[in-house]
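Methods, example record. To illustrate the input and output format used throughout this study, we show the complete record for Pentatricopeptide repeat-containing protein. The sequence lines were provided to the predictor; the line carrying structure tokens was produced by it.
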Amino acid sequence: DLDEGFRLKNAMQASGVQPDVYTYSVLINGLCKESKMDDANELFDEMLDNGLVPNGVTFTTLIDGHCKNGRVDLAMEVYKQMLSQSLLPDLITYNTLIYGLCKKGDLKQAQDLIDEMSMKGLKPDKITYTTLIDGNCKEGDLETAFEYRKRMIKENIRLDDVAYTALISGLCQEGRSVDAEKMLREMLSVGLKPEIGTYTMIINEFCKKGDVWTGSKLLKEMQRDGYMPS
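The corresponding predicted structure is encoded as:
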């Protein structure tokens, strides 16, 4: 309970005991989860004023809070502050920032972070690649999205349903219904179950092009697999 945590902190300070890095980190995490970012920043500053040095977890928690609340600019400031303390960001920190940047549509800066990761010997994982595929598809850059897909295949990282759905959505947005269906078949072949919305996207695209036969075929497949179209 966050209120109880602050009561304990205040009681400690009243008795002359200063909270440690762990205590501050737990409270900052609680504030971030409740989207109370101004309070989280204030507590972070108080921590610094008391001569405490935040650890990687504290920084990453604050970065995550800012990203989830749409303030990637503030997240990047915290990240720079982290570097100034000679702390090395880990894969979780980078994935958090890349997610925030992709959500904002800043794919160039996301790619810059990928390059920075590589220079520090960190390899992108499934979360990194899936975030980049989704972000690039949403921005209409299918070419780059498929490049990341190639990298995943080369590195023996399996695509998940989020990555496949993003690629299918991107292909449908470009009117590439045949390629979207191929991607659906690939998704099914690796044992993933598409959501009803994924089928619907492709069916709608075929019907728009006047290919009602293929649309009907997919609709029957949906029904056979237990989907109930709305």
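Annotations derived from this record:
The chain has a mean pLDDT of 93.
Residues 91-104 form the longest helix (14 residues).
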